[in-house]
User: Fold this.
Amino acid sequence: AHVILEQAGVEVAEAEVPVGAGAAGPWVLSARSRDALVAQAGRLEAFLAGRPEVAASAVAYSLATGRAPLEHRAVVLGEDRDDLLAGVRALAEDRGVPSVVRDETMPGGLALLFTGQGAQRAGMGRELYEAFPVFADAFDAVCARVDLDRPLRDVVFEDAEELDRTGYAQPALFAVEVALFRLVESWGVTPDVLVGHSIGELAAAHVAGVLSLDDACALVSARGRLMGALPEGGAMLAVEAAEDGLDLPEGVDLAAVNGPTSVTVSGDAEAISALEERLRSEGVRVKRLAVSHAFHSHLMEPMLAEFAAVAESLTYRAPTVPVVTTAPGDIATPAYWVSQIREPVRFAEAVASLGGVRTALELGPA
Assistant:
């Protein structure tokens, strides 16, 4: 004889579901096989069809917390309950629709993108720091190694004015991005390729194994300190135009190519102002950036020799995860990091070269 003991079903009052009012989804489903996933969607649709009183938020909570994450997965997205039900019906019928994301519809792996300077804000990462020990440990490890006049954590969490100074902004972004990587890594996220924008490329290089944490922090500290010590007076301008359509005057350099019609130029303030006035008169959309220095321009050249001395004192290794670079050269050499300061950030080309990568996750301040 056999006796099977099983816990009785537990009814959860709707008030106990910790989902904000009006939250609809997502609804996550998983199963051992593709057919089982389709069948599960069918059962969910049948269950909900005659129960209009069951809130979409309650379904989302129950699916996310009450079921085991199995091999075949799908996420149903929607603005409201009707949208979500339509997605579940499509999944039950094994139809592909934009509102249903399935694991087999995302081939080509995962790219992680690391944000560049300008995205920093006071308080970035504070809630993650308080909620996740993995994030906090990684963040503190960077803070303990960077060479700054003030504790980096205090500046990041409390001092917006100081955080906008280049000497603090760059180590701060590096710390947050490395901590974000360690957090998603602890959740089982494994990237297939990495791309970084300017200072973000240093975070990518570190997590790829090119630089140890000690060496990466030394390079980040020197980069921010030496750039911040340069005379102010440069300017940067975002321009809605293609690179090959720009006629740049003397004193202005191409700083970044972020998209087919999204470039940034950098250089002498007077030359940038004249260019801005000319482009506006031609109907080109432009935006002056709030920066203290003209990054990725000829105005960076006075700090390159001292920065090179720091870069050449460090140890470099081949990356264990592929890194698509945004400047010419070998990322595992000191020469790359020196030229990277002066060369334009060819971010658009780096992203376009990712080939079959279907999913990209940006790690940086929200």
Observations:
- The beta strands are 27-31, 72-76, 100-102, 110-114, 193-196, 234-239, 252-259, 262-268, 286-288, 359-363.
